[in-house]
């Protein structure tokens, strides 16, 4: 600055306009630093995490029961029974991600493919229940007769989520070295699923008979056994692919150059597989590099 003042002081205003382009003057100006970091470009990384899942088995045998009883008056009442519970499962896991960011000032938009292998997110359930079904819809007993079905339904189900791949759209806000973001998209899960159901019944006919002996009238209650029936079915698929949706929040921090750290929460819900529904919450930390 002192040197520039001395040089300006030695010439007139008109002469200053004709001064040659001195390199020393040209190099003395530095652009102001950018307020936001540069998140533009391709990136890859790896991650580890914890996943908590709810697996609802309550209607797992329902479709099988409906099929087995499709020509029976028991189809409607029995197929609606909620036989099995909802279970909770936990797992750790690891995976990788790759994506592309586009940046306009502080706004960062991107797309990402994210893969996670889960080590032990699985559960199973089994139970049975017995109910009396009296004159079900479609049954036509004679007048004064009541048909009763002593019906027992037994079932079991098991599910394991092996891995999950999500395809996300991302939107973030660049704040220097920090990038908070949200995302949403499609999820594809690879699962092992099995279920079984057994239904059996005994049918009875209850009716009253009136007899007169002399001056006495006697009513006799009958409960005649009319027969029984049973059916069973089992299904199993080792690699079943299920589609769902995903959404979540995350935060990235640029450590140095293209190296960044990441932490995020992700929610995934899958469409029902064999009448079993699965939803998961995952918490992950990871590191990546932006090119």
From TrEMBL:
Top-rank taxon, per record: Bacteria
Main location: membrane
Compartments it resides in: Cell outer membrane
Keywords: Cell outer membrane, Membrane, Signal
GO cellular component, one term: cell outer membrane
Signal peptide stretch: 1-16
Domain Outer membrane protein beta-barrel, residue spans: 35-291
UniProt cross-references to InterPro entries, sorted A to Z: Beta-barrel_OMP, Enterovir_OMP, OMP-like, OMP/PagP_B-barrel
A Pfam family it matches: OMP_b-brl
Protein family membership: Belongs to the Omp25/RopB family.
Protein name: Outer membrane beta-barrel protein
